[in-house]
Automatic annotation (TrEMBL):
PROSITE patterns: ADH_IRON_1
One Pfam family hit: Fe-ADH
Name of the molecule in the record: Alcohol dehydrogenase, class IV
Organism: Caminicella sporogenes DSM 14501
Keyword line: NAD, Oxidoreductase
Gene3D superfamilies in the cross-refs: 3.40.50.1970, Dehydroquinate synthase-like - alpha domain
Domain called Fe-containing alcohol dehydrogenase-like C-terminal: residue spans: 203-400
Domain Alcohol dehydrogenase iron-type/glycerol dehydrogenase GldA: 18-192
Amino acid sequence: MWEKNMPINEVREIRGKTTIFLGAGAIKKIFDIAKELKEKDIDKVAIVTGKSSYIKCGAWEHVEKALKENDIEFVLYNKVTPNPMSTQVDEATKMARELGAKAVIGIGGGSPIDTAKSVAIMTLYPDYTTADLYEYRFIAKKSLPVIAINTTHGTGTEADRFAVVSVLEGGKEYKPAIAYDFSYPMYSIDDPQLMLSLPKFQTAYTAIDAINHVVEACTTNVTTPYSVMLAKETVRLMAKYLPVALENGKDLEARYYLTYASTIAGICFDNGMLHLTHALEHPLSAIKPDLAHGLGLAILLPSVIRNIYPAKPEILADVLSPIVPGLKGKGEEAEEAAKGVRDWLKSVGVSETLSDIGFKEEDIDRLVELTFETPSLDLLLNCSPVPATKELVEKIYRESL
C-alpha cells in the first residue's frame, strides 16, 4: 500500500480553512508560529489545556520555550476536564481578559481545543457568559486567533469550526454545539509523537469518535461526494491502523495514520454535518460528564446504523466495507450492518451498553427530552436521513440499553 512510502517524519501542510502541520515532529512548528504571532504584534496569549497530559505528551516544553524565545507573555489555564463546562470557559476567559490576550492556544484533544475556541470568542464579549453563547442568547461576530495543538486522534476540531461545551448551571443538563466561520484555528499541529502515550481505552474511544463523524456526515440529507470520499478513507485507515495502535501504542506509523484519519474526518463533517449519533450522545455525557464521548457514541452506533441503513444502503455498504465486508447495499441488510458494526466495536475492546454505564429504562424519557430541548441539537436532528421523531430517538435509546 502507498502508506508505506509516505515519509511520516517529514512535516507536511494540509490546507483548508485551517493550515494543519501533520507529521512526526510537527510540534516544532510552534517556533515558527510564535515568531509569526510576534511579528503580527500578538505578544500576549492565553493557553488552555487539561490537567497534566500537555506536559506528559511533550507538547509543553516546546510551547513554553517558543513563547519565551519570542517574548510572548502568557497565562496558563490547565483545568479543562473531559466534556468541558461553561464555567471552565468563564474561568479561563477571565484570565485571558486580565492578561489582555490577543490569541488563544489550545493543547489537548477536543475538550481543550473546543474550550480554547470558546475562550477566543468570550474574551471579546465581556457582557455575556459562556452559557449565553451556547444557549444562543447572542450571536458572536468575532474571535481571537486560535492555535490548536492536537494530542488525540478523534476529535477533528483542529480542522473544523465546531466547538462543544456543557452548560450545567442552574440544574441544566445541556451539551450544545456552536459553529462559526471565524472559529477555524489559524494554525493546527497534528504530531503523532504527542499521541504515543495515549492509553489504550482513549486510543479506541477517540478513533470511534472519528468513525462516527464520517458515518453520520456521509449519510446526512446535506452530504456531498466530498464527504463520502473522506468517509471511505477514514474508515479504511481506522480499520487498518487502530488494531495496530491497540497492540502497540508506540507504533508511530499507526499513530500517524490514525491522526490523519481523524483530521479528514473533521473536515468530512465540517462539510457534511452530523445527525443522530451525536445528537443522542450529547444528553448522555451531559447527564454523566465523566462518560467518554467516544464510548457514548459507540454504544449508540449499532442502533443508529440499523435505523438509517434502509435510507442510505449504498453509501453505508461502501463506507463500512473495511469493518463490515460483504454488504451489498440493500435496505434489508440493516440488521446485518448493525451486527457487523457491533462485532467490530467488540474487536477493538468496546462492548458496553447504556445499562453497563449506569443508565436505566426510567432515564429514557429524560434523555429524549434533552435531545429535543438542548440548544443546537435540532440542527443535527434536521440533518438525519430519516425523520428524527421522538419515537425514533426513544427507539434508539431503548435498543442501546
